[in-house]
Amino acid sequence: MAQSQELDLVEISPNADPPVCKILDYQKYLYQQKKRAKEQKANAAKIVIKEIRFGPNTDEHDFQFKLNHAKNFLSEGSKVKAYVFFRGRSILFSDQGEKLLLRFALELEEYGKAEQMPKLEGKRMIMMIAPIKKK
What we know:
single chain; alpha+beta; Translation Initiation Factor IF3; 5-stranded mixed sheet; two-stranded antiparallel ribbon; 3 helices; 36% helix; rod-shaped
């Protein structure tokens, strides 16, 4: 039947009893699968990560300024990577940096949730905040 219609006989389920086959144009089928996969990839949300840098002794005004930027980033749907950079001997104030990041996460509670708690990696203490999905 497939030869008379100039199409291909494709085995769908070889383990079934009897095996299931389908008559179709195999090249067209492959093309449509690639096209579908490409569309799904194009529609997938691309995650953007914005970084905000603090010092261990960041002043209140600077904190509020960076907080407003983070609110804008989270409302756009971007993730925020907030970190405190310790220079020289300021690594001794790592507890201050941790308090700063926790306060930052607490202030942004209605815009995003913390994906990870502050973690010290070398000279940086890093914290990721993901936006809250709106319904």
